[in-house]
Design a protein that fits this description.
363 residues; alpha/beta; 2 domains; seven-stranded parallel beta sheet; 42% helix; globular; binds NADP nicotinamide-adenine-dinucleotide phosphate
């Protein structure tokens, strides 16, 4: 047993959530608080003050900033859910692997028991610049698949994690999620809020809610990851004896077709809909120039965020729904290891939309 494991098993459980204002990080903060942890929450901009959370403002791209922020704290468990989007994969590797490396270096000599790293299905699909383009494993994706022969910031982050775990004596886990739906504003990739914004804009003008993606996505099977379930999964791997030192996929556990899901989302919002009709109709094109329309909606309904670019990430939803391949994910490895968490994706969507409404993010 490492010193960190001993500390954690004695009940001194302090989590450091890195990227705590993000779509996954904020769900983790909620899950950890619900389970009675003390939470250290790290991002550049602090989130809402709440009991049990101490915000650490630090810039992950600055080793000095990290050392200063982490010097006075002693987390037993670390959950890394931050990322920085760059123009090329080479830059993604340099920056994102560097952020994890510097964060772990700043924790050297402390009593850390476990580090959980969030990555995603680009592990199997390839990085953005070669996304779903080369030869890929058969679906459903399994964790045992060999890495693709292209550079990928997830591989570089895994390698940083493995090296630091060996040198510093903590256990680790990697969590490969599919598209995450959850609660965050102003983040880079957020399909739930993007679709909610699309529907709200369409309802105002009487336009149909148009599926933006490909024929393959409209008709094929797919799956998704609820941010709350991802948080449960990361916490499970971090605290369950025998579950550590593995990479796991994490998806909701059901599969669906967008041609089934889309009319149900439209019904929730009370809008007419159109499915795939011959070619993709990307949101980046269809939704361009709507900033003032959103600002007007925000004024009229008293919405919390008047800036459309902080609500919708059209590019990301276009990219996910525009894929010309089937994407489904195997959960057998987690289940064999004892994780049986599950969400119905339609229920995850509607619960999230209810929350956006309750918090005045959408009308
Ligand atoms: N979202 C998805 O659908 C999805 C799906 C699969 C995989 N993933 C992967 O999951 C990982 C996390 O993505 P996410 O979508 O959860 O992230 P996100 O919602 O965009 O959140 C990123 C978090 O990192 C923080 N951050 C960014 N740059 C920082 C810096 N320089 N210093 C300190 N904090 C910084 C942000 O806060 P500040 O900006 O305030 O610093 C924020 O809290 C990525 O590797 C991503 O590829 C995401």
């Amino acid at each position: 047993m490492t010193a960190g494991t001993a500390a954690a098993s004695q009940g001194e459980r302090t989590a450091l959530v890195v990227g705590a204002t993000g779509i996954a990080g904020s769900a983790l903060v909620e899950q950890l608080l619900a389970e009675g942890w003390s939470v250290l929450a790290l991002s550049r901009t602090a989130g809402a003050e709440r009991s049990g959370v101490r915000w650490l403002s630090a810039d992950l791209t600055s080793a000095e900033s990290l050392s200063a922020a982490l010097a006075p704290v002693d987390p037993s468990h670390v959950f890394f859910t931050a990322w920085s989007r760059r123009d090329t994969e080479e830059e993604n590797i340099a920056v994102n692997a560097g952020m994890l490396r510097d964060l772990l270096a700043a924790l050297r000599g402390k009593d850390v028991a476990h580090v959980a790293l969030m990555t995603g299905l680009k592990h199997y699909l390839g990085p953005f610049e070669a996304y779903a383009a080369g030869e890929m494993a058969d679906t459903p994706f399994h964790e045992e698949e060999p890495r693709l022969p292209v550079a990928n910031f997830y591989y570089a982050q895994e390698d940083e994690l493995f090296a630091a775990a060996a040198a510093q004596g903590f256990t680790w886990s990697v969590h490969r999620s599919h598209t995450v739906i959850g609660h965050a504003v102003g983040n880079a990739m957020n399909m739930g809020l993007t679709l909610a914004a699309q529907a709200a804009l369409c309802r105002e003008t009487g336009e149909p809610f148009v599926f933006p993606g490909s024929e393959t996505q409209w008709n094929g099977l797919t799956d998704m990851t609820d941010a709350g379930l991802l948080a449960e999964h990361m916490l499970w791997a971090a605290t369950t004896p025998g579950a550590a030192d593995e990479a796991y996929n994490i998806v909701n556990g059901d599969v669906f077709r967008w041609r089934w899901m889309w009319p149900r989302l439209a019904a929730y919002f009370g809008v007419d809909w159109e499915g795939y009709a011959g070619s993709p109709r990307p949101l980046e094109r269809a939704m361009t120039g709507r900033e003032e329309q959103w600002a007007e909606l925000a004024r009229r309904y008293g919405l919390a965020e008047p800036r459309l670019d902080r609500v919708a990430s059209w590019w990301h939803t276009d990219s996910d729904l525009g894929r010309d391949i089937e994407v489904v994910t195997d959960m057998g490895k987690s289940r064999d290891a004892g994780f049986t968490g599950y969400r119905r994706t339609l229920d995850a969507f509607t619960a999230l939309f209810d929350r956006y409404r309750a918090e005045n993010l959408i009308p």
